[in-house]
Design a protein that fits this description.
- This protein has 155 residues and is of the alpha/beta class.
- It has 2 helices and 8 strands, in the order H-E-E-E-E-E-E-E-E-H.
- Residues 7-11 and 13-22 have low confidence and may be disordered.
């Protein structure tokens, strides 16, 4: 049979366990910016991976400040994976998150080069000199004909 003393100590133990359990989480937050102009990236995906490389938390950045926040993270070692359209995905590996800790990780992304923005090598152009000479003669004769017409009209 349980007496009142046992119930009292059991309730204190349960409250302490619950309070201790709630205090064992941490928060990770930061900003996502561009490397070239230090501007905020307003649409991005931030994922937290555990040591087995499994995604355990994912948040979407969708604000004008490029800010993200992940709450209620259990302590451990994690990898941060940040991606945004037009940028190279960034992986920040093996950092520790401890209980009751507020960790700030600002992330800078490099622009991803498209095939249009890369430098192109110069391609030699073959010139048809005979065609070029014919075009020059055509322009000269056309100009001469216009001058003759203007002279004849003014007489």
């Amino acid at each position: 049979m349980i007496n009142s003393n046992h119930l009292f100590f059991l309730s204190i133990f349960m409250m302490g366990t619950v309070m201790f359990g709630f205090g064992q989480t941490a928060e990770l937050s930061g900003y996502v910016k561009t490397k070239s102009s230090d501007q905020e990236i307003t649409i991005a995906t931030v994922s937290l991976l555990n040591q087995q490389n499994e995604i355990v938390y994912t948040v979407k950045v969708n604000n004008e400040f490029g800010e993200y926040r992940i709450d209620s993270i259990t302590h451990g070692n994690y990898t941060l994976l940040v991606s945004a359209k037009g940028f190279k995905t960034r992986r920040i590996t093996d950092f520790a998150i401890r209980a009751e800790h507020r960790l700030v990780k600002n992330v800078v992304l490099n622009a991803e080069f498209s095939r249009f923005s890369e430098k192109k090598e110069k391609v030699p152009v073959e010139v048809d000199y005979e065609e070029k000479e014919r075009m020059i003669q055509y322009v000269m004769y056309s100009s001469l004909a216009l001058v003759l017409v203007a002279v004849l009209v003014n007489q």
